[in-house]
């Protein structure tokens, strides 16, 4: 069904009927309510090997050295089907992004491919993720495939350090982790990092859910486990309900009929 209120988009066929509430381990909702984060895996819900095939043609990130990336703005329609909203840049204000190459700038990326977004397990994942967070029709959902590959050492955050992404709902899914040492995720109750909460090394298929407006996070640098071979680590980041005023202003400009967190 066409999303008549959203411009410059196209439609994706809705997934087969499936109880969205059964998608996640029951502990996920409890953990989010009690401690604002949850770790689970979805290896039984997706064809991870098939998803990994979409890493081969990722474009280089034009703003960050040694990173590759695609991203798309998605939303649900009134019937719960997943649709692509159209082009809108990523925008993070300096309050949420300390990296000089990214803060307070509009960043444009190639979209996620039709072949990826049309997969039933991808659509099921987006719908179930929106259900988990209570995301309603016409609320923009940013979905990214991003990561690093190469030799030597690299900071996957490119100088952001301990930070928040400027939203209320955030999840990080690891797609692959090849010949990698490091990349341990850290959660904190404060930006200064004086109140650490947990340290987690995510394996492919693991997903970390965060109430990003209540917690801060970081990830360690990456290097080769075997120095004779290159490393590679790619993740999916999916988030919504932005508290970053800069991003909300850009979303309103591109999607005038979208439901934004600023109106709540």
Brief account:
With 264 residues, the protein is of the alpha+beta class.
What do these coordinates show?
The chain is an alpha+beta fold and 264 residues long. The chain has one domain: Jelly Rolls, CATH 2.60.120. It is 16% helix and 34% strand. It is built from five helices and 16 strands. It has an eight-stranded antiparallel β-sheet with strand order 1-4-3-7-16-9-13-2. The longest helix has 14 residues. The protein is globular, with a radius of gyration of 18 Å. The chain starts with 9 loop residues before the first strand and ends in a 10-residue tail after the last helix.
**What CATH architecture would you give?**
Sandwich
Proportion of residues in helical segments: 10-25%
CATH class designation: Mainly Beta
Remind me, CATH topology? Jelly Rolls
Main sheet specs: 8 strands, antiparallel
Terminus-to-terminus distance = 26 Å
Gyration radius (Cα, Å) is: 18 Å
Estimate the strand proportion.
25-35%
Instruction: Give the strand order of the largest sheet, numbering strands 1, 2, ... along the chain.
Output: 1-4-3-7-16-9-13-2
Quote the average pLDDT.
89
Q: Compute the number of structural domains.
A: 1
Q: What is the assigned CATH homologous superfamily?
A: q2cbj1_9rhob like domain
The shape, in one word, is globular
């Amino acid at each position: 069904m066409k999303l008549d209120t959203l411009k410059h988009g196209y439609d994706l066929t809705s997934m087969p009927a499936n109880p969205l509430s059964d998608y996640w381990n029951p502990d996920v909702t409890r953990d989010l309510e009690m401690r604002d984060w949850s770790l689970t895996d979805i290896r039984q819900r997706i064809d991870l090997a098939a998803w990994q095939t979409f890493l081969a043609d990722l474009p280089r990130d034009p703003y960050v050295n040694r990173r590759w990336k695609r991203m798309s703005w998605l939303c649900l329609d009134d019937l719960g089907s997943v649709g692509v909203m159209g082009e809108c840049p990523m925008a993070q204000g300096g309050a949420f992004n300390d990296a000089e190459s990214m803060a307070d700038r509009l960043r444009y990326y190639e979209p996620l491919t039709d072949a990826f977004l049309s997969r039933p397990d991808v659509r099921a994942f987006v719908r179930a993720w929106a259900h988990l967070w209570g995301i309603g029709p016409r609320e923009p959902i940013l979905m990214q495939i991003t990561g690093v590959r190469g030799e030597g050492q690299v900071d996957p955050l490119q100088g952001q350090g301990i930070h928040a992404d400027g939203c209320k709902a955030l999840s990080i899914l690891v797609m692959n982790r090849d010949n990698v040492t490091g990349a341990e995720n850290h959660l904190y109750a404060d930006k200064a990092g004086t109140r650490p909460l947990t340290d987690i090394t995510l394996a492919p298929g693991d997903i970390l859910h965060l109430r990003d407006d209540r917690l801060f996070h970081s990830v360690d640098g990456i290097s080769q486990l075997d120095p004779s071979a290159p490393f590679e680590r790619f993740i999916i980041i999916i988030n919504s309900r932005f508290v970053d005023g800069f991003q909300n202003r850009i979303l309103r400009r591109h999607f005038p009929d979208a439901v934004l967190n600023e109106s709540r």
